Amino acid sequence: MRRSRFLPWLVFILGAAYFLLPLIATFDFSLKLKRNVYSFAAYANVLGDPLFRQTFGYSALIAVCTIIVGAVLIVPAAYFVRLKFPALRPFVEFITLLPLVVPPIILVFGYIRMFGSSSWLPFTASRQGTNVLLTFGYVTLAMPYMYRAVDTGLRTIDVQTLTEAATIMGASTPRILLRVIFPNILVAVLSGAFLTFAIVIGEFVMASLLNRPAFGPYMQNVGANKAYEPAALAIIAFAVTWAAMGMIQLLARFAPKAASHDE
Amino acid sequence: MSSSGDILNGNRFGPGLPPGSGLAVSGPRRDWLGAIASAGTLGIAPFLIFALLFLLLPTLGLVSGAFFDTHGHFTFANFGQLTQPTIVSAYLISIEVSAASALLGAAAGLIIALAIGRGGLPSWIRSTALTFSGVASNFAGIPLAFAFIATLGRLGLVTVLLRTYFDFNIYRYGFNLLSFWGLTITYLYFQIPLMVLIVMPAVDGLKREWSEAAETLGASTMQFWRYIGLPVLWPTILGTLALLFANAFGAIATAYALTGSSLNIVPILLYAQIRGDVLHNENLGAALALGMIVITGGANILYIVLRMRAERWLR
């Protein structure tokens, strides 16, 4: 039976219009800083602003720290849950899903009350401490995505056989994790890492309430005070998100499809 | 199955190899195996301690704060204070925006997923749409607000084009980007792609044989969707609705950048409360937060339950 393709095309075109119009409008707006002439002046203003470079650099650095801390915590946990504590699996998965239930604004409110300067663990008493707390907050936000990515990676390799083989050859557990398991799930960890980067780089509410000079609060501040620069920032942020997602797509081509150690 | 018990007994080699076959488990080796088992505990402990310190305890601490007054006495009074008009209207607007963006997002996302999944469109459209959905579902927060100000704000491209070429001023007809509908249309930009991404596997799971069998038996397209397609997709649709609702309910950055504090929704009220104690009672803030957790938590539990029902059909 031949079906009409008119409706699917109409849906696609309407959808494309809804999703592309804001991008076109934003790009158009970002070029209008100078009267009667299209120019990249708004981009020049943004990129030339030392605060842009400082805050973007700060958020990128925190994102990298988040990825490292997240990987160090989650890779061993997911590995041992798979290898030795399968009974713990539902419990660990439940914990990793909790950050989707508890909104970031509530987490950070909890942090401020629990880790205030007069508490037993006064993270917010010093600037360095607050940076660490912000990183840990981002690790928590990224946990659902990072855990899922790592667990998917572990599913595609034969953890049991690899571990046995490495143990027979005399490798210690940290060595197995670092030299055998980690390289095998590198692609999965990296795709989790890029997603984490996309989430962390423009995050607003945690950075703002912890008073850290991050990119999200900077964008908010520009939005409240300028007209054309926010549009340029939106285009830059969209490009960063696109780049991060593009890397994940690219990595997916290198990912193994299934365990190849069964034979 | 090789569980932790096997490992502690010295059999790490699965059911194929009995303990001691080939490799004799001598005294020092046994110690070493014990070390591996404790390494397992060591490997998982940091994660659990981290989750306790930076996820569970802060949340529980905040929630318990809702049950105490400013002098540290146990009380339910904070919840009574939640009924003051500002807070009630904040919850109402939040629920309305979340529900509207979830319903419209789920409907539009489902239609798009059906169009690109079963509409017979060229395959590049499907892959492009899915990649774009991955990007757009993560393109939230502050920049999204900027994009919609440039589109539907008073000087936005669409506003200006409609006024110039069709003499139609949307702002004169009651539209305002800084209002319920403005926020809902903006939220749809990440809600629709999220729906597409989640519902796509379920749409792909509608087997071709089912529609062929239905057709052979004389069912019309309408009847196929009424009796087969929608009932199979239903749990996924309802579950994702709950997830989209929670997603919009907890979001703050887009609304804050769009409206400043002019739109009174719960996350923005809570933000102002954390910033400057606008409610003049820190524990009332905790009660406000508890209300948010109850709503997003309820929606997510619904999502998980319905998701488990939906997965029956994906095998």
What shape does the CA trace of chain B take? globular
CATH topology of chain A: MetI-like fold
Question: How much of the residues of chain A is beta strand, in percent?
Answer: under 5%
Total number of β-strand segments of chain B?
Answer: 0
Instruction: Give the H and E element order of chain A.
Output: HHHHHHHHHHHH
* Residue share in helix of chain B: over 70%
Question: Number of helical runs of chain A?
Answer: 12
Task: Calculate Rg of chain B over CA atoms.
Answer: 27 Å
CATH class of chain A: Mainly Alpha
The biggest sheet of chain B amounts to: none
This entry's quaternary arrangement is heterodimer
Q: What CATH architecture of chain A would you give?
A: Orthogonal Bundle
Q: Would you identify the regions of chain B where 5 or more consecutive residues have pLDDT less than 50?
A: 1-27
Number of helices of chain B: 13
Mean pLDDT metric of chain A: 90
Note the gap between the termini of chain B.
23 Å
Order of helices and strands of chain B: HHHHHHHHHHHHH
Largest interface: A-B, 95 and 92 residues
Question: How would you explain this protein's 3D organization?
Answer:
The complex is a heterodimer of chains A (263) and B (315). By secondary structure, chain A is mainly α. The C terminus of chain A is likely disordered. In chain A, helix 4 packs across helix 6 and helix 9 packs antiparallel against helix 12. In chain A, 76% of the residues lie in helices and 0% in strands. By secondary structure, chain B is mainly alpha-helical. Chain B has two domains: 40 residues; 238 residues, Orthogonal Bundle (MetI-like fold). Chain B is 73% helix and 0% strand. Chain B is built from 13 helices and no strands. In chain B, helix 5 packs across helix 8. Chain B is globular. The two termini of chain B are 23 Å apart. At the A-B interface, helix 1, helix 3, helix 4, helix 5 and helix 6 of A face helix 2, helix 4, helix 5, helix 6 and helix 8 of B.
